[in-house]
């Protein structure tokens, strides 16, 4: 009873504000997690406090998700049943969300600084799905220019991939003892007269900038030869990274081509929504009916199909059987048709 009385609808204004708040933390966590993995062995005090605040926010978000109704993917109706909401969330991202909230920095120190524990930090990258969902919703928002949204999304994808690679590049260099620093890509690096001997003593900004430079020139496959892999582990990672970059490059080029050509499903939805809004403004329709019309268009876009389009390719005989399955019990139970012949009922169906 308590759960049923406190169900939150997805379009609740306070909940929408909360999703924006948690989105900020998701962006921070998605970018900071690779940075923490690569550049820190135990967080400084200020960052540690910030990390704890973030994990508390995500814990609250986990609790709220057990109260938030959802739209059924088959019927497209809002499901308010607490048991269904809980089961759906437990089957999806609950485990990853919960593990992501663990204070891995404290666990790492408590386990005697075992390096294997730090790999569990990567579970927090599942929070990047919130950012992906945000861009997906932003593309449908006609108040924001579609071209601008797509370009920003592509830039964020590229920056995130190079940022993550930069953190891993530096991490690979720090896994070797200080006596073997010269056998790493950064320890053997010399730019002009500047040498990166004892690179662990350099400031964080210079180390990150150098790592990011290596990641970007490797991604663009225009390496100038000034930075390159030195040991076998670095070579293996570079091969995997360049192979991934070929897929990423195809994704970026494909999306840019789609922007030029136009005609995507999202763009058609936006154009239709603009026409409907102009019609509503011209006829000065009320707020309630405006929301109903826009809600219907959004539902139509999300469902992406109509019954007519599904049935048009099915033979007439099978369509007749489908109609009997769907409608015959209702027609037979109607008082008007009581006592009618089976052939008549079938024709009505």
From TrEMBL:
List keywords of the entry alphabetically: Ion channel, Ion transport, Membrane, Potassium, Potassium channel, Potassium transport, Transmembrane, Transmembrane helix, Transport, Voltage-gated channel
* Stored SUPFAM superfamilies: cAMP-binding domain-like, Voltage-gated potassium channels
Transmembrane feature ranges: 14-35, 47-70, 204-224, 236-261
**Localization (cell):** Membrane
Q: What is the superkingdom listed in this entry's lineage? A: Eukaryota
**What GO terms fall under cellular component here?**
monoatomic ion channel complex
Q: Which molecular-function annotation in GO is an example for this chain?
A: voltage-gated potassium channel activity
Pfam families named among the record's database cross-references? Ion_trans
Record keyword Disulfide bond present: no
Indicate the segments forming the Ion transport domain, all copies: 17-264
InterPro entries attached to this UniProt entry:
cNMP-bd_dom_sf, Ion_trans_dom, K_chnl_volt-dep_EAG/ELK/ERG, KAT/AKT
Q: How does it sit in the membrane?
A: Multi-pass membrane protein
The cross-references to PANTHER family, in alphabetical order and at most eight, read:
POTASSIUM CHANNEL AKT1 (PTHR45743), POTASSIUM CHANNEL SKOR (PTHR45743:SF3)
**What name does UniProt use for this protein?**
Ion transport domain-containing protein
